[in-house]
Amino acid sequence: IQELRRQIRVLNNQIAGLNRTIEEQQETIDAEEELHQERERRVYVK
């Protein structure tokens, strides 16, 4: 049981790390989407 608890802790840490990575990637995607929309708006203005 001790070993299982240790493994669960390790997995939880890995999951937390993955969640952070996903959040960072989502922020990057959102920023790129914003830039893309801004470019499209400029094209319409011309």
TrEMBL record:
- Specify the superkingdom: Eukaryota
What are the UniProt keywords, alphabetically?
Answer: Coiled coil
> Which residues are in coiled coils?
1-42
Q: Does the keyword Coiled coil apply?
A: yes
The protein in question is named 15278_t:CDS:1
Per the UniProt record, the source organism is Racocetra fulgida
